[in-house]
Amino acid sequence: MAFNELTDGLSEPVRKAWERSLTSGRAALSRRSVLRAAALTAGAGSLAACGIPPARTVNGTGDSTANAAKDLSESEREVNFSNWPLYIDTDENDKEKHGTLEAFTAATGIKVKYTEDVNDNVEFFGKVKPQLAAGQDTGRDLMVLTDWMAARMIRLGWAQKLNQANVTTAITTIDSRFRAPDWDPGRLYSYPWAGIQVVVAYNRKATKGKEVTSVAQLLEDPDLKGRVTFLSEMRDSVGITLLDMGKDPAKFTADDYGAAVARLQKAVDNKQIRRFTGNDYGQELSSGDIAACVAWGGDLIQLRADNPDIEFVIPEKGFVSSTDNLLIPAKAQHKTNAEKLIDFYYQPKIAAQLTAGIGFVSAVTGMPEELAAVDPDSAANPLVVPTPEMAAKAHVFRTLTEAEESDFEEKFSKLIGA
Fold first, then answer.
1. Most buried of 194, 214, 225, 334 (most Cβ within 10 A)?
2. How far apart, in Å, are the Cα atoms of 290 and each of 203, 225, 415?
């Protein structure tokens, strides 16, 4: 299906948001240097526009009336796992080897076909939705998708409810912060693979030693005028602005959203904000071409390693966080094996091995102690292992209705000139 066919049926602002993510947002970027896509994807309306009916649901829960297939897990000791590139631990001498997957096979006898084919949420959704909408197997038993897309999959009835008996380790070791997102309360369908953080960063040399500690300073400090960037991802830039205004991104109203956009607009009009970016802020921040910005925590680990002048700050009023999540798609042929793999990654020792390999936040309790034994530097990095004080400042951006999605994206598109 062509891109213009995929976007048929979308409102203009949502279509633009999709395009923006593919060209300048997280969707356009490599895994190691940045995070995942956080653009909007086609909803039920666009499915119909492509001649694909939306999945049926039961009692509005998003649970399909026929989303399960015969489980071949017992007779076929395998699991097909789709993930993002460079988003798993690898052997330094052989990039095709992944220690955690080999440990899983050794422990269970289940072989893993591991494919790095989730280049961004939008593209991947377009790849699998014809099969899912037609009630067909995608050839995948497990996939990793960002929270807003995971919510869409559940709502459409395209994710299978987990057998709780097969994920007992995950149930007991998932950190309480990740246990009950509004789009999957109780984690009945999903478990986090890794967490994402949106923080403030600055170049100490470019600010001449001046600290930058808040979003308010980014928006108002005359010493930073014209040398500030925000992110082109709506949830990240508006979310952290809402926090600075004392509003919870998980509970904000339309008026709150409008006020946050107006505040950003004022900074654009005053030329305080230079522009809204994808991860290209990294090069500008490192060179000192910009002095400060809103940044993704995953970027800053490498940026700080390359340039000791780069600093990051957790604003006093909080920061925005999100997750990438493990899901079992409808009609998966090896559901039990996939559940066993999910559960395996919730062993603290295995979670530590994964975290050491990717440098993103883990949702597994007990992981930090295990990580300290294998990678003390990562264990001491609050971007990898948030301190309790930092974790208490994490906030999620609430799930939007389709009407809100269109309205909010239209306002944000006008703000950033998209």
1. 334
2. 8, 10, 20
